[in-house]
Specification:
GO terms for molecular function: oxidoreductase activity, acting on the aldehyde or oxo group of donors, NAD or NADP as acceptor. The protein is an alpha/beta fold. The chain contains 14 helices and 22 strands.
Length: 459
């Protein structure tokens, strides 16, 4: 399979003809050869986008709503296939991607279309920001793009999307949907490539606004490039998500659900947990239950399987988590279960580490891998005390009786708290607290990021 860029409504290879290999996370075999874009491809996409912008910015709200509904319909008609392709390339379960990426994307497009037809403030005029750059991570890539694409399109902008090199299939499935929906050529352009392409998009003076989702180091590099030009900037990422199990929780029956936010995605997604706090009163029994559960765990070898232990996205990720575990041991952490896995694919046994000091590096930094830090605490109030020490604060999960859960949820420094559940197909875009987000976080099409809002006086 060859995966190209999508520019001007067509699939075209990189100008250099260079490619890179995309490997199957489940087997380690080559899935596709992918166009390796560079500055020439960005310039080409920009030139085409500028031409498209001259007419698209004057399109009516009704016409834009029609485009959004048409794109939603195109995705809906091929939802199962799109979910499978993304799951295969991302090393995730098909059912998870279908529910939390594809179906969410469809609803976002539909909801944005409806919002375009609602009455607007007559004292305000909304003009598109211009060319919007979208840069996203690989996990549930379609969703991360559509979250930003929908309001950008609704506001009358044209866009350049840099798709993660770990999910190049997203260019193909989204590009085909754009063609099917008859979105005007050049309005949405999708580029393959590495971090170099992201930096070019972030720094090019023709791009008025940049919205990005990814790990903290990626967002920092984008900010350093974009801020000197006073671009509109919208950054989301940085996850060190805590989970907590409170007293009187039926953790034995809930164990698969409690561990699912760690296992599905193997700690690599921004929604995954990497720390788990339990009370000392039941910690020994809980740890024994975890040990037994992991002992019987089987890896997910096919996206359509039912197992929750998924592979890592690349061989580099396998090597990276191995180094972090070694570093954790040097910080006095003790490996409770886990370690390297045998066989094909980028699998690593889900690893639990105990006794790691709450102010240690691994308790603060993003891990991006199958390493779960379990910390027993004596009192409930210690949960929020130690959970809040990290400088990233994306989301969290709390398990327990309603009256106890709400108290802890209110005290956690995270932007989103799942209560006795996780990833239920919500359409909410999460912008975390602290270092987990930065810039203009307005996601509405007629807000100050995707639109230039002009207020009228004296009318």
């Amino acid at each position: 399979m060859e995966l190209s860029n999508f520019i001007g409504g067509e699939f075209i290879p990189a100008e250099s003809k260079n490619t890179f290999s995309k490997f199957n996370p489940f087997t380690g075999e080559v899935l596709a050869q992918v166009s390796s874009s560079d500055a020439m491809d960005v310039i080409k996409a920009l030139q085409i986008a500028k031409k498209a912008a001259t007419s698209f910015k004057d399109s009516s709200l009704e016409q834009r709503a029609t485009y959004l509904r048409s794109l939603a319909q195109a995705l809906q008609e091929d939802a199962d296939h799109i979910a499978y392709e993304e799951a295969l390339h991302q090393g995730l379960p098909h059912a998870f991607v279908l529910k939390n990426s594809v179906e969410v994307s469809i609803r976002i497009l539909q909801e944005t279309a409806e919002s375009l037809l609602q009455s607007q403030d007559p004292q305000k005029l909304f003009q598109p920001s211009g060319i919007v750059g979208i840069i996203t991570a690989w996990s549930c890539s379609l969703r991360l793009i559509v979250e930003r694409l929908a309001p950008a399109l609704a506001a009358g902008n044209v866009v350049l999307v840099k798709v993660s090199e770990h999910s190049p299939i997203t260019v193909k499935v989204l590009g085909e949907a754009l063609q099917k929906a008859q979105i005007p050529a050049g309005v949405i352009n999708l580029l393959q490539g590495n971090a170099e392409v992201a930096q070019i998009i972030a720094g090019h003076p023709s791009i008025r606004a940049v919205t990005a989702a990814g790990k903290t180091s990626t967002l920092e590099a984008i900010a350093k490039t974009a801020l000197p030009q006073f671009k509109k900037l919208q950054l989301s990422g940085g996850a060190k998500n805590p989970s907590a199990i409170l007293a009187d929780t039926d953790y034995k029956n809930l164990l698969p659900e409690i561990l699912r936010p760690f296992l599905v995605g193997q700690g690599q997604m921004c929604w995954n947990i990497s720390r788990l706090f339990v009370l000392e009163s039941f910690a020994p029994d809980f740890l024994e239950a975890v040990k037994n559960y992991f002992a019987d765990l089987k890896p997910l070898k096919d996206p359509r399987g039912n197992e929750s232990w998924t592979p890592l996205i690349s061989q580099n990720s396998v090597s990276g988590i191995d180094e972090k575990i070694k570093f954790g041991v040097s910080e006095h952490g003790k490996i409770f279960v886990g370690g390297k896995a045998e066989g094909a694919g980028y699998f690593y046994k889900p690893t639990v580490m105990l006794d790691l000091p709450n102010c240690s590096v691994l308790q603060q930094d993003e891990l991006h891998g199958p390493l779960l830090l379990i910390t027993p605490v004596k009192y409930q109030h210690e949960i929020q005390k130690w959970a809040n020490t990290s400088y990233v604060a994306h989301s969290s999960v709390v398990w327990g009786p309603a009256e106890k859960v709400m108290k802890v949820a209110a005290a956690l420094d995270t932007a989103h708290v799942w209560v006795n559940s996780w990833m239920n197909g919500e359409t909410t875009t999460i912008f975390g607290h602290k270092h987990s987000s930065f810039g203009n976080l307005d996601m509405s099409w007629n807000g100050s990021f995707y639109s230039d809002v002009k207020k009228l006086a004296g009318t």
